[in-house]
């Protein structure tokens, strides 16, 4: 088995009486493409928020690369090599597409608090930005304001911004949410390329074709607790999963 | 020279012509006009400092006059207590820079601890009022509500000469602030304005950046305060009041928020209108209530051009460019 990159121990968070995440202990291995699956409201995004530091757990611990990061801020977690995208599009809408990605690279390269050097003079940053924009197929849109892009393009931009951080682990929260069906294959393509580069990807997803094509491991979460984890084929045959996640249906049914 | 490379030829010529005009005009104008224009230049710098916060960082500071008034008082107090010489002026500038960066640091540490934009605005309002009250009570130094008249260095006494100093001050500060906005740090401030949460998840320590923004704005504001004090040869507690902060807010609103140059246009417009309305008092007594008309002007501006003059101009340029592009596109077909 590969090295464990992220590990959670009895992770719980409650909002009032509601336990959104309940005693979740999972380990996410380096180099494995792990998909977290579960019905709406199961606590998948909350789990991401806990791992990335947006929320503080009420109980339990989170380890990243063997260090306890439970008390660290999101900023410190990003610096350790954790990048995340958001389910709802979260870009700098009144800045250009280019600038969105460039800012991301600037953050990664630790330019520091330079106050009087022109930002356009950092050639390596600009070159890198072009590379990333090419990777996420937004090269011709670079001078558009991010807010003017179509929804699908904004999702790609969002992904580009996380890729620009060159994280060791990529937490992707439904990168294809709200995308049209025609755009999904390009997204899968981009993710496949990222995976080949050796980045560990943790994905939250609903679209079954995507999960099947990409995942090495599935984790099913229901009602805030882990139901089952393992090999995609194995898990998708598990009767408990079929019952909880699909209400008794078949996992191989055509995607909607 | 490096700076000029970034500006295209047309803009370069336009700025050149503007500068030539601005350096000839005072020789033909009345003394009151010269004073008005000096005032425009200085308040433009003050408004630009406010734009760094509101327009670029998305931080509403209702205590911004704290820096402006402090600058004027620091100049005034030093000229009175020590001597009105150039040496003291340099000392006043140095002390203002140190004082304002410290004050901004403290303000930032209190305000940026969390909470929303509104909570931060309210705290800055309170801090500004504390400064104003202190100035009012500390009679032995500030002369309290009477205000502090003071002598200024001889070199600044000539109104015409001071006009040029004010103009140079505006040019230098515009170049510095423009560089700041174009720097990596300035870019991060814009990212924070757009979406602070996202900036955090790119790994930016957003409070640190906001603190830098506040310090730059505070120092700029303080320096414009020193110049404003010298222009009026007088400092009073009004310079520290919320009213003074709102002046900056309104100037940037009229000129265009988040454009930097908008502050210059806004300052020219607001001060000219204000001056004109004050002159009308001798025409009809209703203009004793000139603030009524002044307020109406703001309402009109906000209703019909919410992006201000510069915003309107940028939009016009963009529309024209799109039209040109589509024409080229049609020809291509």
From TrEMBL, chain A:
Keywords: ATP-binding, Nucleotide-binding, Transport. GO terms for molecular function: ATP binding; ATP hydrolysis activity. The keyword Methyltransferase does not apply. The keyword Transcription does not apply. SUPFAM superfamilies: P-loop containing nucleoside triphosphate hydrolases. This is ABC transporter ATP-binding protein. InterPro entries: AAA+_ATPase, ABC_AA/LPS_Transport, ABC_transporter-like_ATP-bd, ABC_transporter-like_CS, BCA_ABC_TP_C, P-loop_NTPase. Pfam families: ABC_tran (PF00005), BCA_ABC_TP_C (PF12399). GO terms for cellular component: plasma membrane. Residues 6-248 form the ABC transporter domain.
UniProtKB/TrEMBL annotation, chain B:
The keyword Transmembrane helix applies. The keyword Hydrolase does not apply. It is a multi-pass membrane protein. GO terms for cellular component: plasma membrane. It is found in: Cell membrane. Its main location: membrane. Keywords: Cell membrane, Membrane, Transmembrane, Transmembrane helix. One of its GO terms (molecular function) is branched-chain amino acid transmembrane transporter activity. The chain crosses the membrane at residues 12-29, 59-79, 86-106, 112-131, 162-181, 212-234, 246-270, 290-313. InterPro entries: ABC_transp_permease, LivM-like. Coiled coil: none annotated. This is Branched-chain amino acid ABC transporter permease. The lineage of its organism: Bacteria, Bacillati, Bacillota, Clostridia, Peptostreptococcales.
